[in-house]
Design a protein that fits this description.
Blueprint: H1 7-15, E1 20-25, H2 29-40, E2 45-51, H3 54-63, E3 68-71, H4 80-88, E4 95-100, H5 105-113, E5 118-121, H6 122-125, H7 128-140
Parallel strand pairs: 1-2, 1-3, 3-4, 4-5
Helix pairs in contact: 3-4
Length: about 140
């Protein structure tokens, strides 16, 4: 017996854009869980890898493909600046969102100079991560 697929089901599968694949780099378990919950609430966006250190982040970038990366600057080992430098070399370069408590003007300017697309302050712009990822999803879907 062969399995059959209804053509309207197949068309739905082919028409559905792939989920936005996200790497979350955050050393605080509490903040990381908050981020996972926030991103998990975004339809069409999926966290496919996590890292707590610069070394883990660089290994994840080598091992996988990501459409977007959320980067904390102060990591348990290493820093988000090293990750930003590595992301700059990626082709295509993933959407890069910095989410940090270190939100001074010079730090913001350094991150943007290193290629970050967005720079968010954890204390008052946390939810902007979801908005940026949803905007990327919508852009990819032609909305």
């Amino acid at each position: 017996m062969s399995a059959s697929v209804r053509t309207d089901d197949a068309a739905d599968v082919l028409a559905a854009p792939a989920a936005v694949q996200v790497l979350v780099i955050e050393d605080s378990a509490l903040i990381r869980e908050r981020l996972l919950d926030l991103i998990g609430s975004c339809e069409g966006v999926q966290v496919t890898a996590q890292a707590e250190t610069e070394r883990e982040a660089l290994a994840a970038l080598e091992a996988g493909h990501f459409d977007a990366v959320v980067v904390d600057l102060q990591l348990r080992d290493g820093s988000g600046f090293g990750v930003l430098q590595a992301l700059r070399q990626r082709v295509p370069r993933p959407l890069t969102l910095v989410l940090t408590n270190t939100s001074t003007r010079p730090i913001r300017e350094r991150c943007l100079a290193l290629g970050a697309h967005h720079f968010f302050d954890k204390s008052n712009e946390f939810d902007q991560v979801a908005a940026a990822l949803e905007a990327m999803r919508d852009h990819r879907a032609g909305r």
